[in-house]
Write a structure and sequence with these properties.
Layout: H1 21-28, H2 30-41, E1 104-109, H3 119-123, E2 125-127, E3 132-134, H4 148-165, E4 169-172, H5 184-193, E5 198-205, E6 215-219, E7 223-224, E8 227-228, H6 233-251, E9 265-268, H7 272-275, E10 281-288, H8 292-298, H9 301-320
Bound molecules: zinc ion.
Zinc ion binds next to loops.
């Protein structure tokens, strides 16, 4: 769930219709069409799209079941190594060589597992150029209590391992090592200060049951106050399309059936993490935690490994141009 403001923000003005992801991806990643067709064959998407995004949670409420996070099947690490992220501390180092040698990637695990214990701090407003927004929010969770904040850190660790193996220098905006946040403005600054070649903010949505699939959020062109995204709109769109294409191909998951008109891509001008970025950056909502079918994927370590793989291959494709 991206950082929706206190009052649910109206959907963004419609962009010229993008080609549905199937066509766009087929151009980017031939395999994707196959994945999509397979998905269609097994009766995936509910079709149709609206621009309403998720149900806002106030930053004061803990994720629905923060008090009982110990119930999902995800706690039982499965034997296969791919389903458990390396717990290497964030001081892990890039491989000596690889296609991403010299590249810097910043990963922003959305929210923070202890945000709900710091409501006063995360409710403080920060300036995002276009307006003032809450410092951070608690994020959502599955009906069985698996929290988004835990999900984002897990996928971030897997993604970091994959990118470091290819030689990239990887930084996390938080690694479960901050009492709360960081605030959305600081999350952007961390990517800017690192002169990152690419930044990805990882989330999972909290929409209605039956609303399924992932979407990638691109920065719209904003120039107000400290925000000026004009230099990164095109490169971020390129990064976003490559991540979306590879995410479909590797996970077999469909693009959102409730935002993005089947393209899996949405442009927004109301997210501080994008508005204040001066480097190519996107958000990805990996699925809807409040839909039981999506939740079954999101709570599976093996699926999260595929999600990290899809995001990683999108980043590699972008960085290698
Ligand atoms: Zn989120």
């Amino acid at each position: 769930m991206s950082y929706v403001g206190p009052d649910f923000d109206p959907p963004q003005p419609r962009r010229p219709r993008r080609r549905p992801l199937t066509v766009a991806v087929a151009a980017l990643v031939p395999g994707a069409l196959l994945g999509w067709l397979v998905y269609e064959a097994v009766g995936g998407s509910g079709g149709g799209a609206s621009e309403a995004v998720g149900t806002p949670t106030s930053s004061s409420s803990a994720p629905a079941s923060a008090s009982v996070p110990k119930s999902t099947d995800d706690e039982k690490p499965s034997p296969s190594p791919s389903s458990t992220p390396s717990k290497t501390p964030s001081t892990s180092a890039p491989a000596a060589s690889g296609p991403l040698k010299g590249k810097v990637v910043v990963i922003d695990p959305g929210h923070n597992p202890s945000n709900f214990q710091h409501t006063a701090e995360i409710n403080k407003k920060v300036n995002i150029g276009t307006n003032w927004k809450e410092c951070d929010t608690t994020g959502t969770s599955t009906n069985s209590g698996y929290t988004e904040a835990k999900f984002t850190l897990d996928v971030a660790h897997r993604l970091r391992t994959l990118l470091e193996k290819q030689g990239a220098t990887v930084k996390l905006t938080q690694d479960g090592d901050r009492t709360y946040g960081p605030c959305v403005d600081e999350r952007a600054r961390i990517g800017n200060k690192a002169h990152a070649d690419a930044v990805v903010s990882i989330h999972a949505d909290g929409a209605g049951a039956g609303q399924r699939g992932f979407h990638v959020i691109l920065p719209g062109s904003v120039h107000a106050g400290a925000a000026d995204t004009r230099p990164i709109v095109a490169s971020s769109a390129d990064l976003g399309e490559r991540i979306a294409g590879n995410f479909v191909r590797v996970t077999g998951s469909a693009p959102s059936n409730y935002v993005g008109d089947g393209t899996g891509l949405v442009t927004r001008k109301d997210l501080g993490g994008l508005n204040l970025s001066t480097v190519p950056k996107v958000f990805i909502e990996c699925g809807n935690m409040r839909d039981t079918k999506d939740a079954a994927q999101l709570t599976s370590g093996a699926w999260r490994q595929k999600a990290a793989q899809g995001i990683s291959e999108g980043i590699v494709s972008f960085l290698r141009g």
